[in-house]
Amino acid sequence: MTIVEARDAHVAIDKVSLLAPTSFSVAPGDALAVTGSNGSGKTTLLRVLAGKQQLTGGSVTIAGEAPNEKDAEFRARLAALLGLPPLSRSLTLHEHLALVAASWGDSVELAREAASDALRQFGIQRLQRRFVHELSSGQTQMFALALTLIRPSEILLLDEPEQRLDAERRELLADVLAARVASGTTLIMASHSAELVGRVCDRELALAEDVA
Ligand SMILES: Nc1ncnc2c1ncn2[C@@H]1O[C@H](COP(=O)(O)OP(=O)(O)OP(=O)(O)O)[C@@H](O)[C@H]1O
Fold first, then answer.
1. C-alpha pair distances (Å), 26 with each of 4, 61, 115, 160
2. Is the dihedral of CA 66, 20, 25, 149 positive or negative?
């Protein structure tokens, strides 16, 4: 059974290649690492899977359909962290998380509990009343991960989730992601951390070196 499939998927802009023809398939519950040097196309591939980047050729399907970020079913199936999401300067971390949890169906009370749980899970509960502009870069990354994982999803796409994290936080991240995969979530993760990939993923898709 396949939940994510790419066949000769490639992207070029003005004849410059962003992603060389790439084929792979992922079964439900798999954890696939996308690896390769800077510029090899990892982010581009994740953007294609998230429906944020059109293919120049080939095909990609998520549960048999082309990615479409406007489609409610597609959005409910897939959560992605591809750079920092848009955030409000006037909401605290707890309020951001509760808002996202409530928008995916939790009651206000449950959403507030889920927000506290997510802050605890990522070790940032003492920052719950801070605004995003009051965080360090590593704290911001932990918060962005919490914001991505608080909502339900069958498929998680993460672009270098280890970026800006110290060794202790990378360990914590590996624990959280390994637990999420163990609970049945399909994970596709671009990463430069062999350690994180080794802890969390069971397969690797190595993109060819700088194709530009
Ligand atoms: N909008 C764009 N226009 C032209 N080229 C682009 C554009 N965005 C990215 N590229 C090029 O596409 C190639 C792939 O970029 P991408 O960001 O997917 O690489 P990556 O593997 O994620 O790199 P890194 O490890 O540095 O994050 C690079 O050569 C990059 O310069």
1. 5, 11, 30, 19
2. negative
Q: Whose CA is nearest to atom 12 of ligand 1?
A: 18
CATH class label, 4-206? alpha beta
Q: Are strands 4-13 and 16-26 parallel, antiparallel or unpaired?
A: antiparallel
Q: ipTM score here?
A: 0.96
Q: Rounded to two decimals, what is the model's pTM?
A: 0.95
Nearest CA to ligand 1 atom 30: 39
Q: How far is the CA of 182 from the centre of ligand 1 (A)?
A: 31
Greatest alpha-carbon span in the chain: 52
pLDDT in tens, 8-27: 999 999 989 999 999 999 99
| CA 41 to ligand 1: nearest atom | 18
Distance CA 156, CA 28 (A): 11
DSSP letter at 207 equals P
